[in-house]
């Protein structure tokens, strides 16, 4: 796949200190997102979206890197263009959400009040995830 130039989408923050901070934050979000690939408790996609936002305000080089990344780029571009996520990503996120919270609630958290709070958090996150639109890819090419 040929790399695209997304530099025209970068709107630099006027403050140099803010740009440096945003590059640092974007890189931290990338690291957290990569860790999330291996730990189901951390969702990868939201952190990569945050990283892309930070880079879009601070660095054309990093923004182009994340937008052209073969793993994370397609999901970020889908979100930027259509404000949707692929159906498979949505279902995977929901299954991991319920399984991770379920295991935590039933096997590791001994206090009923904490179990209830985690259950409410899980359901809230699931409702939010369910509300995100899914766009079917164009297959009539």
Give the tags.
mainly alpha, 6 helices, 141 residues
Beta content comes to under 5%
Structural class: mainly alpha
Question: Can you tell me the overall shape?
Answer: globular
- Poorly predicted runs: none
* Mean pLDDT metric: 89
Main sheet makeup: none
Instruction: Tell me the total number of β-strands.
Output: 0
List the helices and strands in order.
HHHHHH
> What is the share of helical residues?
55-70%
Count of structural domains: 2
Radius of gyration: 17 Å
Number of helices: 6
- Kindly report how far apart the N and C termini lie: 17 Å
Structural account:
The chain has 141 residues and is mainly α. It has 2 domains: 7-82, no CATH class; 87-131. It contains 6 helices and no strands. The protein has helices at 16-38, 44-56, 60-68, 73-82, 87-108, 112-131. Helix 1 (16-38) runs antiparallel to helix 2 (44-56). The model has no long low-confidence stretch (mean pLDDT 89).
Provide a quick synopsis of the model:
The protein has six helices and no strands. It is mainly α and 141 residues long.
Which helices and strands, and how do they pair?
Elements (H helix, E strand, L loop, with lengths): L15 H23 L5 H13 L3 H9 L4 H10 L4 H22 L3 H20 L10
Helix pairs in contact: 1-2, 2-3, 5-6
């Amino acid at each position: 796949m040929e790399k695209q130039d997304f530099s025209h989408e970068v709107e630099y923050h006027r403050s140099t200190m803010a740009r440096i901070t945003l590059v640092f934050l974007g890189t931290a979000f990338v690291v957290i997102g990569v860790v999330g690939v291996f730990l189901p408790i951390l969702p990868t996609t939201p952190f990569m979206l945050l990283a892309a936002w930070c880079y879009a305000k601070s660095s054309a080089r990093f923004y182009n890197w994340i937008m052209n990344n073969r793993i994370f780029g397609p999901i970020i571009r889908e979100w930027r263009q259509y404000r949707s996520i692929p159906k498979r990503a949505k279902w995977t996120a929901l299954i991991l959400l319920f399984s991770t919270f379920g295991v935590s609630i039933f096997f590791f958290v001994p206090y009923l009040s904490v179990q209830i709070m985690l259950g409410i958090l899980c359901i809230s996150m699931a409702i939010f995830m369910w509300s995100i639109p899914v766009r079917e890819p164009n297959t009539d090419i």
